[in-house]
Amino acid sequence: MTTTTLRPPVRPANRPSRGHRAAQLWKASPLTWVGLVLGVILSLFPFYWMIVIASRTNDAANSWPPPFLPGGKLGENIERVLSNGDANVVKGLMNSFLVSGTITVATVFFGSLAGFAFAKLKFKGKNALLLVILASMMVPIQLGVLPLYILMAKLEWLNTMPSVTVPFLIGGFGIFMMRQYAEQAVPNELIEAARVDGCSTWRIYWHVVAPALRPAAAVLGLLTFMEQWNQFFWPFVVLADPSNPTVQISLRSLNTAYFADNSQIFAGTLIATLPLFVMFILFGRQIIGGIMEGAVKS
């Protein structure tokens, strides 16, 4: 009787291992680096050009060929922007901080609360109500301008900050985003264990759900703040009084002269852009972490 010994297959000497093939797959090629460098240059050049024009005199900004290096007039141009009584840039910055901050906090809070309810709670009409919210995301804001303007007029909110704040305190995108994240990030077993311990629905949200939704809340908060900070159309409709503008209305007031002062306009744009850079620097790591965590969960 003979015995047969099974031997593992021998990999050819010139065939790379699976780990080596995976490393080669994720290794960036020179063409990839060229594409990334070009993308960075194209993304940063408008901001660099804004700084160049903001630091020059208006004659230099309109000269040909245009300058490509920053000048020494940045501080003077910023001072002219802040002291421009027609634009009221300081008042516009304060109003935009108030409006954008209020809407951001409300959107994150109500969006996470509603998202938790749609994802983890059972109640009648949940699916129908979610479809209504999704349908509201498909309606352009321009279609609702006239009835919303009439409502603001009847409430006597025209030329006031509630007219640009209250209609946007909650939106369908925030609810849907938090609902999708809560569906994956909050296990049903964790909620059931909290109910067994005697927690109410509010305590479950505040102590269990809200901490788990923090990465998504950071992403939603930044997107909402940027959207409201750059909002122009609706404030332009309801804020006819130039003494009480938002920052985007103030920037428009810088460009109402017959001869445009480009250096002043670009300096004002630089001032209006800085808060967004500060927001991203302060919360960028948490925001990127939230996006990556959401991508892994999905």
Give a written overview of the molecule.
- By secondary structure, the chain is mainly alpha-helical.
- The chain is 68% helix and 0% strand.
- It contains 15 helices and no strands.
- The longest helix has 36 residues, at 262-297.
- The radius of gyration is 27 Å and the shape is globular.
- The relative contact order is 0.14.
- The mean pLDDT is 84.
**Strand residue content:** under 5%
Classify the helix fraction into a percent range.
55-70%
Secondary structure tally, helices: 15
Coarse shape: globular
Q: Main sheet, how many strands, which sense, barrel?
A: none
Structural class based on helices, strands and sheet pairing: mainly alpha
Concise account of the structure shown:
With 298 residues, this protein is mainly alpha-helical. It contains 15 helices and no strands.
Entry keywords:
single chain; 298 residues; mainly alpha; 68% helix; globular
SSE blueprint:
Layout: H1 18-26, H2 30-54, H3 58-61, H4 74-82, H5 89-120, H6 126-136, H7 145-154, H8 162-165, H9 172-185, H10 188-196, H11 201-212, H12 214-229, H13 233-238, H14 247-253, H15 262-297
